[in-house]
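Hi support team,

I've been running sequence recovery on a batch of backbones for a student project. Most finish fine, but this one hangs at about 90% for roughly twenty minutes before it completes. I'm not sure whether the input is malformed or the queue is just slow. I've pasted the structure tokens below so you can try to reproduce it. Let me know if you need the job ID as well.

Thanks,
M.K.
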């Protein structure tokens, strides 16, 4: 539900954003899987990408330190280390090549 609402808001606001910035805004993805990305989800997602479009993937890769995150609900939902391993894996890099995906840096 949350992902659908965010996507709808993006669709409504995208023309205004583009008109104001004269730049192409990225298509926002991954909200429904944020904290729990997996290979199958990314493979499906990447297969739907269109050439020339920009995409932004919400993810939370990192190292887990229990002293930094006291909230048990957040701990139960996010798997930072699994996302980090997935995004650094050769399998995902192979998907980038297969679908012609170029990563950007901020």
């Amino acid at each position: 539900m949350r992902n659908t609402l965010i996507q709808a808001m993006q669709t409504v606001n995208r023309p205004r954003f583009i008109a104001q910035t004269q730049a192409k805004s990225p298509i926002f993805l991954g909200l429904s899987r944020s904290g729990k990305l997996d290979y199958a989800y990314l493979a499906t997602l990447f297969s739907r990408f269109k050439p020339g479009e920009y995409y932004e993937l919400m993810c939370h890769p990192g190292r887990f330190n229990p002293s930094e995150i006291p909230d048990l609900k957040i701990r139960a939902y996010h798997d930072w280390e699994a996302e980090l391993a997935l995004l650094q894996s050769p399998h995902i890099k192979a998907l980038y090549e297969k679908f012609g995906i170029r990563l950007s840096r901020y």
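--
Follow-up from support: It reproduced on our side and the slowdown came from queue contention, not your input. Residues 2-99 form one domain. No action needed from you.
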